[in-house]
Design a protein that fits this description.
four-stranded antiparallel beta sheet; alpha+beta; Alpha-Beta Plaits; 4 strands; 4 helices; 102 residues; globular
Length: 102
């Protein structure tokens, strides 16, 4: 079973990135810290656009990612964050082939 990496680019409504980050810290960060199947999670603020952020995640398997995406608390986060977003997040998925520092 291969690990699954995700890179998610999200555009918020103007000036709403900080609010979305607070919702992420409230709803998702505590679960990510406890989830052994969600091996790496990194929130990155775009340096050129104050309304864009990226999430980089590595899951132990595609099934682990699917379980997270289907969890009721993820839906609660999206219900709260959705109105603050300018568009649907762009999601890239890949199988990690090489890394350093993880």
């Amino acid at each position: 079973m291969s690990k699954l990496a995700m890179v998610i680019k999200t555009q918020t409504q103007p000036g709403k990135r900080t609010e979305v980050a607070a919702l992420y810290q409230q709803h998702l960060a505590p679960r990510a810290e406890r989830n052994e199947e969600q091996e790496v999670v990194v929130w990155c603020d775009d340096v050129h656009d104050p309304d864009v952020f990226y999430l980089f995640e590595i899951y132990a398997s595609q099934e682990a990612m699917g379980a997270n995406a289907q969890a009721p608390w993820f839906a609660e986060y999206m219900a709260a964050a959705g109105p603050l977003l300018a568009a649907e997040p762009e999601v890239g998925m890949a199988v990690p082939a090489w890394s350093t520092g993880l």
